Write a sequence for this structure.
């Protein structure tokens, strides 16, 4: 999405229990985001983060998006949707692969991350995020960036976040009934941490309340 001047826009949609908020951000050259439009409307179709009335939710989304479009002077056609609720689960996982050519490549990292996700989860849950905690090469722990390092065995410790398939499908359905596409679905607490905390603060384990 763009508006006059050709600058790129990114849109976040927070479908909460009390209100729906649509926020339009203009992406700066340095990667920062400036808020150029915001729209809110009371939410009447959700309970504890789960859609219980599709029609009411659709109407709330439409009103919030229209208000954000008016303020930003653009037409919104895709959003990043936030999700939360009691249906969200998380678990730690671990993957191991052999290192090809005895030097870690980007392909090796991709394979070990895939291996870490290859765990049994309930059929009614879907993986939302895979958060890397650390890499291990030949028993050496605490590695952040393994590409280019020598070794024969690469391990990854990750934290998996899952959400109920039905909850994700219903949120997606409501958004698409508004004529919008879903770029991605993001866990709201995770999005908040990236918006408020620095990389160092997250690495140190700062708790955002």
């Amino acid at each position: 999405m763009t508006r006059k001047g050709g600058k790129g826009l990114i849109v976040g949609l927070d479908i909460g229990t009390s209100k729906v908020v649509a926020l339009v951000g203009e992406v700066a050259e340095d990667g920062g985001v400036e808020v150029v439009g915001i729209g809110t409307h009371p939410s009447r179709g959700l309970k504890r983060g789960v859609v219980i009335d599709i029609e009411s939710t659709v109407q709330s989304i439409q009103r919030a998006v229209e208000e954000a479009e008016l303020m930003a002077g653009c037409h919104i056609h895709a959003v990043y949707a936030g999700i939360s609720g009691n249906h969200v689960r998380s678990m730690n996982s671990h993957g191991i692969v052999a290192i090809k050519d005895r030097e870690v490549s980007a392909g090796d990292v991709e394979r070990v991350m895939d291996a870490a996700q290859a765990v049994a989860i309930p059929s009614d849950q879907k993986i939302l995020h895979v958060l890397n905690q650390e890499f291990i090469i030949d028993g050496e722990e605490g590695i952040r960036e393994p590409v280019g390092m020598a070794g024969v065995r690469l391990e990854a410790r990750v934290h998996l976040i899952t959400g109920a398939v039905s909850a994700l499908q219903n949120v997606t359905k409501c958004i698409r009934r508004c004529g919008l596409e879903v770029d991605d679905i993001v866990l709201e607490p995770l999005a908040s941490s990236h918006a408020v905390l620095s990389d160092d603060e997250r690495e140190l384990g700062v708790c955002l309340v």
About this structure: Helices lie at 54-72, 106-117, 165-176, 188-196, 199-204. The chain has two domains: 9-85+165-204, 89-162. The longest strand covers residues 125-137.
